[in-house]
Design brief:
The protein is an all-beta fold. It is built from no helices and 13 strands.
Length: 165
C-alpha cells in the first residue's frame, strides 16, 4: 500500500496473511527486486529532477542523481523498471512562453537510466496528451523494456511504444 505518494507499507504477504508490523519501504521496488526507487522534482520552476536508489537486500544507498532538463519540470508521470532493472522516468513540463501555434507548451520527456548507477542511457520526447480527460495510468513498462504510452487526441486514443536506447 502506498501512503500518499510516500513510503510503501507492507500490509500482508503473498499468501494472504496480514503483516501486523506494517514495515515501510523507502521507495518503489524495482521489477528485478534489487532496488527501491524514489524520484522528486526540484523547486517550483526548476528544470531539475532527482532519482534515488537503495539496494533492497542491504538497505545501503546505491545512488542519487540529478538530471537537468531543457525546460521547467511540473510533475513526475512515471517511475518504473523493466525486468532487467533499467529505470524509466517520465516527466512533464510546460514551456513558460510557447509559440502561438503550439498547444500551451506542454512536453513529456522519457529518461532511461542504468540500474546500477543511474547513468543516463538515453531519452525520448513524447507527445503531450492534448485532451482534458485523465486516465488512471498512461504508462506501462513491459518486462522486455521500453514504454507503452496511451496518447489521447481529438481523433481518439492510441497506444504507442517508445524506447530511448
Amino acid at each position: 500500500m502506498e501512503a500518499e505518494h510516500g513510503p510503501l507499507i507492507r500490509v500482508g504477504g503473498l499468501d494472504g496473511t496480514s503483516d501486523t508490523e506494517r514495515p515501510q519501504l523507502p521507495g518503489r521496488p524495482s521489477r528485478d527486486g534489487k532496488a527501491l526507487l524514489t524520484a522528486n522534482v526540484g523547486p517550483r520552476g526548476s528544470s531539475k529532477v532527482y532519482v534515488h536508489a537503495v539496494d533492497r537486500a542491504s538497505g545501503q544507498h546505491r545512488f542519487s542523481r540529478e538530471y537537468s532538463l531543457p525546460l521547467p519540470v511540473l510533475s513526475i508521470l512515471m517511475l518504473d523498471t523493466d525486468a532487467s532493472g533499467v529505470i524509466y522516468l517520465a516527466v512533464s513540463g510546460e514551456e513558460p512562453h510557447p509559440p502561438e501555434e503550439v498547444r500551451p507548451g506542454h512536453w513529456v520527456r522519457l529518461l532511461c537510466l542504468d540500474a546500477l548507477d543511474g547513468a543516463p542511457l538515453g531519452s525520448a520526447d513524447l507527445p503531450s496528451n492534448a485532451m482534458p480527460e485523465e486516465t488512471f495510468r498512461d504508462f506501462a513498462v513491459p518486462d522486455s523494456g521500453g514504454v507503452l504510452y496511451s496518447v489521447r487526441t481529438p481523433q481518439g486514443v492510441t497506444l504507442q511504444r517508445y524506447t530511448c536506447r
